[in-house]
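Quick illustration, no need to memorize.
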Amino acid sequence: MRSLVWCSSSRATKRKGCKQPEADWHVGDKSSAIPRTIPWLVRNATSTTSPCSRAFDKTNSPPVAESSCSKPRTVLVDYALRRRFKFVGLRPYQNGDAPVLRSWLKAKSISNVDHIVKLFCKLNEHISKINPHFIVGHSYFMAPRLQGRTQDAAPEAFSKDLLEDIWEFSILPLLSEYEPHRSLNELTKTYGLEAVLGSV
């Protein structure tokens, strides 16, 4: 595929300095521009630089793209990558279970694994009602204080004190970004630890 159009319209292409970059993106072609273009795309996908900005990769290679604005650039980059690569969706929970979190808790000899997994899944069920893409990852429940435990250790429950810390310092601050228009009290009533525990 030749001559990817980065300018937002034919009118934009007439601006001084705006050009359509030439790039050979054929699959399997060793001269493909993708390896040196992707780092620039990642760094500049939301760039708000001048109308026609020249892009260089970290090795100071010749320009690989010139753009009229950032918004069309982001859309076209997404389409270009999707045409070349296959994407697999990964979710921390599915069908009421969280295999990765469950496995990790068992490896730390946590006695109430089922309860924590149900709590985690229920929390995400509530959050996904805001937006399917708003999901709390299992790493929030992989507490540092449990890192040193092994499967041979004496069984120990995932304490409520630890859950309260996770909610206060991780879950609720994250949700305040998901729903910035709501107060902390409102978020606590909907997504607080007690609220989620009551629905498990």
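Confidence is low (pLDDT under 50) at residues 1-75.
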